Every structure is written in C-alpha cells, then in structure tokens.
DNA sequence: CGCTATCATGACAGCGCTACCATTCTGGAC
DNA sequence: GTCCAGAATGGTAGCGCTGTCATGATAGCG
C-alpha cells in the first residue's frame, strides 16, 4: 500500500504465478527488520528468539494483517495440527457428543477437526481416511474397531496416532470406549431381576450399528443362562422416536405376551414410551421399557426411562487428552481406556 | 520396491530432509512411464490425457498405494477443497442438523469440512476464521450475521465465498436463512388468536442466542400492537429440557396469571411440557406451551407441541448447493435465500 | 587471554505438487 | 505439399513456509 509497487524490485522473475495480494511471512520479516526464518520462529517458537525480535515481528504481523499460510507450513514441516474425525452418523446425537468432547479439548490445544461422515459405510470410511491422510493429519479418530481391509492396511502403515473410540477392544493403536456386550448383559440382568421373563430386544439396522448388536449378544447370553428365550426385533429405519413407536407396535403384534422391551437406544425407547402413553398403556405395568445411552430426554419423560448411561462427552475428552499426550511425544500412555457405564434405573421397568 | 534404491540417482543433494517413505506423484509417474505433470493431470483432469496414459497412471497409483498429498497440491494451486464451517454450539442439535445438510452435499462433491465451534464467542469466531483462512479454504460457512469488527474486516478482504446461514438478512456475501422476527410474530399471533392474553416469552442466554431474542422482538411487536404486555423471562442456563422445567416453575412463580408460555425453542418447551405432566398440570388447560424448531421430540409428546418448523437440514443443503454453484464458477446465483418456516399447531396451545 | 558452550540469527534448500508456457505431434483445409 | 488448429505432453519455476546446518555474538572457564 505505502510502497509504489512491491514487485518492481523483482526483475529476474519473468512471470508472476498469481499476484496474490496475500501477505507473506517474508513481508512481515522485512517490515520487522529480521530474516524470514526468525519471523517464523517468533511465531512458532517464541522462546527461541530475543524479546526485541519477537516484539517487532508481532507488531509487523499486526500492522500488515498477516495470516499465516498453514498449508505452506504443513508442507514444509509435514505437521498439520489437523485431526481427522470420522463418525458413522451425525443424526445420532451420541456421536455428536463425542465430537463435542473431542472438539473442546483439541481446539484448546490449537488443533482443528476435519470431520467425516461415513453413513455406516466402511468403503466410504476408507475413502475418507485416504483423503485425510492426504492432509497429513496429526492423528485420526474413528468410531469403532471395524474397518475394511484396504482401510486397515492403509492405517497400519501410517505413522501417526490412531484413536478408535466408542467400543472397547483390541484396536490398531489407541482405544477409548466401553464394553457393549457387558452393557447388554447388565440391562438383561436388571430386567430379569425385576421379574420379567418375556423380554424382546428391539434394535434398528443392527448390521450397521453393530455396537447395538453386541449389546444384544450380551443380552442374549444372560437370558440363555437363565434358560429364557431372547427374541429379537430388527427395524430397518434408523433409531428415532418414530421408529421406537413402530417398534412398540410391532412387538405388541408379534409377541403379545411381552413384559419388557430392551431397546437398543434411548431414542427408540423414549419413542416407544411416549407412544405407549398416547395409547394409554401403563409403563411398566403393561409393558416395561429400557434403553441405552442416558439421553436427557429419557430422564424427563414420565416414568423416567431405565437406561444405561454412557459417558459420551467424557469419551471424547479422554480420547483427545490421550491423543494430545501422545502427540506431545510423551510415550507414557495406556493404549486402552475403559470409560465404563452406569445402569440408571428409572420408573419404566 | 522393484528398483534397487530410488535415491541412488540423486547424487547432488547432500542431505535428505525426511526419508519419508511416502510415495510421491513423481514415483507414480516414473512407474507409469510419463512425466509428473501428466500423472497429475491424469488424476485431476482425466479428460485431458490420453486413455493409455490415464490407464497406466491409475495402475501405478494402485500398485504403489499412492495417496495424494493434498497439502502440497493446495499450496501449489491455492485451492483446497476444504470448507470451513463455524457454528456457535454443538449441543444445540439445530446446528448439527445444518452441518449434516452441508456435509452430505459437500462430501458428495469432494469437499471436506473443517469444523469450528465458537461457543457463542465472537472473539473465538475471529480466531477460528483466521486459522481457517490460513488453510486457504475454498469457502466459509458461518452461523449468523453478527461478527466482531476484526472478523468482519478479515472476511471483507477475503476473495472466497462466504455463506452466512440461520438468519435472513443483509450478509457479507451469500445468505441462507429464515426471518426470526417474522417467526416470533407468527407464534405470537397464533397465541393471541387462540385467545391467550397473558403470555410470557421464555428464553435462555438471549445475548448469545440473539436469534431467539429476534423472535422475542417479533413476539413483542405483535403483543404491543394488540395492546398487551409482553413479559420476558430469561434463563441463564443454555436451552435444555432441564432449563425448560425450571423456566416453567419460574413463570408460575413470577407470573401466576400466565395462560401461555412462548419458549425460545423446543428443548425448553418440551422440558416444560414434560415437567407440567409430572406436576399434574393440564396442558393447554392450565397452561399453554409453544416452542420453536420442530424437533422430533415435540411431535411425540402428548399433547403434541405447537411449534414453528424450521427446515434445518434443508438450510444446510441449500447453502451447500449455492456454494458449490458459486465455486464452479457459475455467477448466476441469488445472494439471499429465505427458507421460510411453518407454524405447526399441536395440542399444547 | 584463548578456548569452548550457549544463544540468536541467517542462508539455503526443498516439502510435493501444479500453473504456465513451450514443444511436439496429429489431421484436416486449401 | 504447406499451413494451421488442436490435442497431448513435458520443462521450468515456483506456492510460502520450515528443517538443517553454519555463522556470528555472547558468556563462562581455567
């Protein structure tokens, strides 16, 4: 602005690629009266330069309105402060809460989130992973331990932290989650202890939401041990209040003797509970209802929903903390973290 | 792999920076028997190279397991296929639904989302914008039309599309949203028409959630026109079922003659409705309740919640489509899109 | 006072890719 | 056969930044 023309004194270069009014670090350095590399250090490693240098650089940054080009920085350093987060769904608030936990912890440390959504499709996951590796992300967070082989190979050869969340198990690298089979067992035991003997498990798209199917496995194990049948009703719409209402109707039609329904999640359970109310059914007198997740909704309906509380935001925060610890070079970490769960007994069972 | 050592024939370079086992485009080109630039074109502009060249490049990519370095590509082309999305909150499902709409449309076009959360803090927003501009994002989506001056200046000088969503108005560039004042008016009119005269508006943190306060403005206007008082109760916890229950209690205590409560959103309204049920209050007989958003929850409680349906995913999809259109160079677009809203009358009023 | 350890700074090269221009090669019009 | 349009390909030179090493300045030691 003040100078006549900034490229008048660069006679050698025959052509400019892009005039690109963007302020560069070199310009900042020039204004500050230091070399570009010192300007770089002043911004990235402030403790490595003298006070005076740092001050003049910061002042130049301010006056020029310099915005660092992170793309160039990442290319040069092959570090990006970008964390890839891949989830199967954004409709399901559970994943959003995990993202929230990740987000607040990672942003505080100056990391940004690159968000990907697989829609429960492992091939899509592979594509996303490829793209994200191309961004030389510092780490990758993915929901679940199951991946297709291409994805597995790609990640196995990747030399950055990988964090698999939601479920507990032998992962590729780091893992923060809970034991879904145990959660399923826990609820089944509760229902049995309450005296229910005709119990139906209702889930939605279990092939995709395989964690729900792991809970069913636990549920089935327990009932089998007790010598009881464990019928399963699978809905083919994704979990929602509406689907829960339909689930209730189908159970009543197909299994009229049912005393209790163990829903794969709280959305379904709450939907069924509200539908039961609309139909004048007594919960738990006519039918008991249990869910999974501990969504706020379940705590506000009457009767309060019996559910299993999973610490979702906490899972995100813990995962983020472990990643940060790992990324700061500390090797002291546990590969696996069990965040546990809590049976929350309401009036619905 | 097949060759002895790829860097044996680069004798001039004294030192290697990082050995970086990463496969580069040059290696792909070498294997494919073409120049690097042709390999680049084969991947980015397939129609610009011959069939044979394209085939051999793709085959080389496959066999080497090449993953393009998007950071380098972005630096060279100053395009990134990254879209910054900045929202004030992830707890509020409304923003998540907009993100979902954006996400599914943008991912289909090969764009990735860089997600930022301001926690309703405009200074934080500015920081995020700075960071995201540093990634040379192709475009930026932000919730709302209000920004601090630094942010405004920064964005005004930025030469990429900016999309402001959620509320309708004179934005910086593109805008997709709805008229919140009109929505507030709409609901107030409905309540008046239903015969209610003692109506309290209940919101949470209106200074932050200023869109809720715009709805209150509309609400107030209408009641003023009718010559009625428009008391406001502001909660200082964020919108949630719990807060709604508290809001109900406070209204009953402070304004015992209240006939109807106009809540700033469905979370609050549903929380109040469920709380009313727990307390044996008749809705709408003892107290009428209305919300805003049209969350599924409101449609499943009994009585069904009267609310205003806002097309949130649709807003995200439309915003994404407009951005894509703009990014593909088409200049034919409307700067402003009103997605409208629908009054949904349930049994709660 | 000379020697080495430490700090602050700078020169250089290069991260992996693509924009730009130049070149070659084809095929058709005349 | 000449000329030119157009397609396919390649060479060169960066994009803006930071890792690596080298240098100069300062301090610490016997």
State the CATH topology of the largest domain in chain A. Answer: Rossmann fold
What would you give as the CATH superfamily of the largest domain in chain A? Answer: Response regulator
User: Which structural class do you get from the secondary structure elements of chain A?
Assistant: alpha/beta
- Report how far the terminal alpha carbons of chain A are from each other: 73 Å
Number of domains of chain A: 3
Report the average pLDDT across residues of chain A.
90
Briefly characterize the structure.
With 349 residues, chain A is α/β, with parallel strands linked by helices. Chain A has helices at 25-32, 36-44, 51-64, 70-77, 93-108, 122-134, 149-156, 180-193, 210-225, 241-254, 266-278, 296-300, 312-327, and strands spanning 82-87, 112-117, 139-143, 162-167, 174-178, 199-204, 232-235, 260-263, 288-290, 307-309, 336-338, 342-344. The model of chain A is unreliable at 1-16 (pLDDT under 50).
């Amino acid at each position: 602005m003040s100078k006549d023309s900034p490229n008048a004194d660069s006679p050698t270069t025959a052509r400019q690629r892009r005039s690109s009014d963007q302020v560069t670090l070199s310009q900042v350095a020039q204004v500050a009266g230091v070399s570009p590399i010192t300007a770089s250090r002043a911004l990235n490693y402030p403790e490595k330069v003298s006070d005076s240098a740092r001050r003049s650089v910061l002042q130049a940054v301010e006056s020029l309105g310099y915005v660092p080009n992170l793309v160039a920085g990442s290319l040069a350093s092959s570090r990006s402060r970008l964390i890839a987060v891949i989830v199967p769904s954004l409709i399901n608030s559970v994943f959003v809460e995990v993202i929230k936990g990740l987000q607040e912890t990672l942003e505080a440390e100056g990391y940004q989130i690159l968000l990907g959504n697989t829609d429960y499709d492992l091939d899509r996951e592979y594509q996303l992973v490829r793209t994200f590796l191309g961004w030389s992300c510092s780490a990758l967070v993915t929901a679940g331990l199951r991946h297709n082989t291409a994805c597995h190979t790609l990640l196995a050869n990747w030399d950055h932290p990988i964090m698999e969340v939601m479920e507990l198990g032998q992962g590729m690298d780091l893992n923060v989650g809970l034991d879904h089979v145990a959660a399923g067992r826990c609820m089944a035991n509760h229902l049995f202890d309450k005296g229910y003997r005709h119990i139906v498990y209702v889930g939605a798209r279990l092939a995709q939401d395989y964690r729900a199917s792991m809970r069913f496995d636990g549920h089935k194990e327990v009932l089998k041990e007790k010598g009881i049948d464990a019928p399963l009703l699978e809905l083919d719409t994704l979990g929602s209040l509406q689907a829960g209402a339909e689930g209730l109707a189908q159970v009543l039609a197909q299994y009229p003797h049912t005393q209790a329904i163990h829903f794969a999640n709280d959305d379904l359970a709450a939907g069924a509970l509200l539908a039961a109310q609309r139909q004048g059914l007594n919960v738990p007198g006519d039918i008991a209802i249990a869910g999974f997740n501990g969504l706020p909704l379940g705590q506000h309906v009457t009767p309060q929903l019996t559910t299993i509380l999973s610490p979702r935001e906490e899972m995100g925060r813990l995962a983020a903390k472990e990643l940060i610890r790992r990324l700061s070079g500390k090797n002291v970490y546990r590969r696996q973290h069990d965040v546990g769960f809590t049976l929350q007994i309401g009036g619905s069972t």
